[in-house]
Design a protein that fits this description.
By secondary structure, the chain is α+β, with helices and mostly antiparallel strands. Helix content is 17%, strand content 36%. An eight-stranded antiparallel β-sheet has the order 9-5-6-7-11-3-2-13, with no helix packed on it. Strand 2 and strand 3 form a beta hairpin. Helix 1 packs antiparallel against helix 2. The longest helix has 17 residues. The two termini are 29 Å apart.
Length: 214
C-alpha cells in the first residue's frame, strides 16, 4: 500500500472535518466550520506519515515506533519465540507519529490479534491485559523478532498494513494504532540493546540495537 504525507486510515477523519466545514458554510454556522477546521487540522497532524531514512549499518535494528522508551527487560517469550528474549517497550503519546515500522528486513511469519482491555499502555501489565496485535518477523539473515502493538486508554483500533508471507524492508510500514498506545519489541538474548529508558525514538530511523552477527 503506497503512503503519502497522511496515513490512509486518516482519510475518513479528514473527510469528516471537511464535511463539517462545508455544512457550516452552507448553513451560515461559522462555529461548525471552525470545529471542522480544528478537527481536520488535528487529524492531519495525528495521521501524518513522514518519510524516514534508516541507518547504513546492516546489523542495526531500528525502532518500530515513535515515542519514549518506558522500560527494558529480559523475559521468557513462549507464544512465538519459545525462549528468552530482550524486550524494549515504547510508549506513544497522542502527539507522536503512530505509523509503526519493521525493525529488520524479513518476512512476516505470523500475525495474531488478541482482544483485551484498554488500560494505560505505559503500565507494565498492559502486555498481558490489553487489546494487542503481534507480528512475528523472520529476519532475512536468520533469527526472529516480534513486534507487539498494544492498545491504550484512547487507542481503540489497531490497524495492520501487512499479511503473513509478505516480505518487508527494514523500516517499511507494518501498521498503526489510533490515539496513544505502546509497541513492544522482542529481540534475541544475544542482541545488543543501544538505548536506555527515557530515550525518545523515531520509527524506522532510530537504531535501538544490533545483531550479534550480520
Amino acid at each position: 500500500m503506497r503512503r503519502g504525507l497522511i496515513a490512509a486510515p486518516g482519510y475518513p477523519f479528514l473527510l469528516g472535518g471537511a464535511l463539517l466545514i462545508f455544512l457550516g458554510w452552507a448553513l451560515s454556522w461559522p462555529w461548525l466550520s471552525l470545529a471542522g477546521l480544528l478537527g481536520a487540522g488535528f487529524f492531519a497532524y495525528f495521521f501524518r506519515d513522514p518519510q524516514r531514512l534508516g541507518p547504513s549499518d546492516p546489523a542495526a535494528i531500528v525502532s518500530p515506533a515513535d515515542g519514549k522508551v518506558v522500560f527494558l527487560d529480559e523475559i521468557q517469550e513462549d507464544r512465538f519465540l519459545h525462549g528468552p528474549a530482550k524486550r524494549l517497550a515504547i510508549f506513544m503519546n497522542v502527539f507522536d507519529v503512530h505509523v509503526n515500522r519493521a525493525p529488520v528486513a524479513g518476512t512476516v511469519a505470523d500475525i495474531r490479534h488478541q482482544p483485551g482491555k484498554f488500560k494505560a499502555a505505559f503500565l507494565k501489565e498492559a502486555d498481558r491485559l490489553n487489546e494487542q496485535q503481534a507480528t512475528l518477523l523472520d529476519r532475512d539473515k536468520g533469527g526472529q523478532v516480534l513486534v507487539v502493538q498494544i492498545a491504550g486508554l484512547l487507542a481503540r483500533r489497531i490497524i495492520g498494513f501487512v499479511k503473513p508471507g509478505q516480505k518487508l524492508a527494514r523500516g517499511e510500514r507494518l501498521g498503526m494504532i489510533c490515539f496513544g498506545s505502546r509497541v513492544d519489541l522482542y529481540l534475541p538474548p544475544e542482541s545488543e540493546i543501544l538505548v536506555k529508558v527515557g530515550d525518545r525514538l523515531k520509527a524506522g530511523s532510530s537504531t535501538v540495537g544490533r545483531w550479534a552477527s550480520v
